[in-house]
Amino acid sequence: xxxVVKIAGQQFRVQEGDTLFVPHLSANNGDKVxxxxxxxxxxxxxxxxxxxVTKVVKAEVLNSLVQGDKVIAYKQKRRKGFRKKHGHRxxxxxxxxxxxx
Length: 101
Prior knowledge:
Strand content: over 45%
Distance between the termini: 11 Å
Strand order of the largest sheet: 2-1-5-6
Helix content: under 10%
Shape: elongated
Structural class: mainly beta
Largest sheet: 4 strands, antiparallel
């Protein structure tokens, strides 16, 4: 059984027992979270899509704040003395899928 769930504007294909990094959620380590925005469910080869889906994805937060790789944005205009350097690290939450119920 697998499901496609929408978390913080992104879609993820999940199964029970999967661990994944999702955009930062405001939850603490060990908290249980539920995602009700399930777009598709496949159970024993039968697909449920759209308004037919009545399932909820339940997950546990393993690590509430994980930082991604550093990304550097650099701009320069030649012969003008213009240089601009910005950087950031995207924040994620590490979750484990407990059940699709």
